[in-house]
Amino acid sequence: MGKYYDLDDIIAQEERVLVVFQKAATGVGLLDPSSETNNVEHGAKVELPFWLGQELHARQAVAMSIPPCFNQMTRKEIQADAASVDLRSRSPYFYELGCKIAPLVADKTIGSFLLYTLTNRYKGILCKAHTATFATAAKPLSILTKEETQLYEAAQSSMMAFKKWRIGGSQFATASVVGRKRKPVV
Questions:
Q1: Cα 50 to Cα 117: distance, rounded to the nearest angstrom
Q2: Engineering a disulfide at 169: which of 97, 160, 164, 183 sits with its beta carbon 3.0 to 4.6 angstroms away?
């Protein structure tokens, strides 16, 4: 269970993942749209929200497949040019979903893949945030995930605060106590 009141966490867990039922299940035919009965057979492939797949995986009822946003084609695109890949269209919560799904799937390279992706995109995100004006800021934001968008906005607000400080936005004031002389102690 994640952060209970975090809306981003709730939305991230709504991502659809493909699961394969390891056991037959009765009374859950609604989960499988191709099922004509109220049962799901052993070996049936069904797309479920991540939160449900995670619970069923914990009970060893299903095996989770790797989501398409972590497939080999995406990995090759990121290795070729990580900064230009539109991760938002693949999964708006790419990193969060990857961290949650890594221990549940057979592919143990997802963690290192996430690290590689973020390290290659990090510098570009910060450079764009520090140099972009508000008019040109829409283009880079359209391909960033939620986590990267938060990083971009934090870097932009940091740069604005630095510029304000540099041109003399807030000056230090002298405390009223500094100008007074101390009385001699007798």
A1: 22
A2: 164
Is the sign of the CA dihedral 133, 139, 143, 149 positive or negative?
Answer: positive
Question: How far is it, in rounded angstroms, from Cα 93 to Cα 113?
Answer: 15
Distance in angstroms (rounded) separating the CA atoms of residues 29 and 4: 28
**Residue closest to 9 by CA, chosen among 130, 133, 97, 74:** 97
**What is the per-residue pLDDT across 102-112, written as a single tens digit (0 to 9) for each?**
999 888 899 99
What are the tokens at 111?
A: 């963690």
Which secondary structure element, helix H or strand E, spans residue 108, and what is its range? Answer: none
Q: How many CB atoms lie within 10 A of CB 137?
A: 14
- Nearest by Cα to 53 from 66, 36, 69: 66
How far is 70 from 116, CA to CA, in rounded Å? 13
Residues in the chain: 186
| Model confidence pTM above 0.90 | no
Q: Kind and range of the H or E element at 151?
A: helix 146-166
Q: Could you please report the per-residue DSSP string of 41-103?
A: -TT-EEEEEHHHHHHHHHTTSEEEPPPGGGSHHHHHHHHHHGGG--HHHH-TTHHHHHHHHGG
Residues 67 and 76: beta-carbon distance below 8 Å: no
**pLDDT of 106-142, one tens digit each?**
888 999 999 999 999 998 888 888 887 655 666 677 8
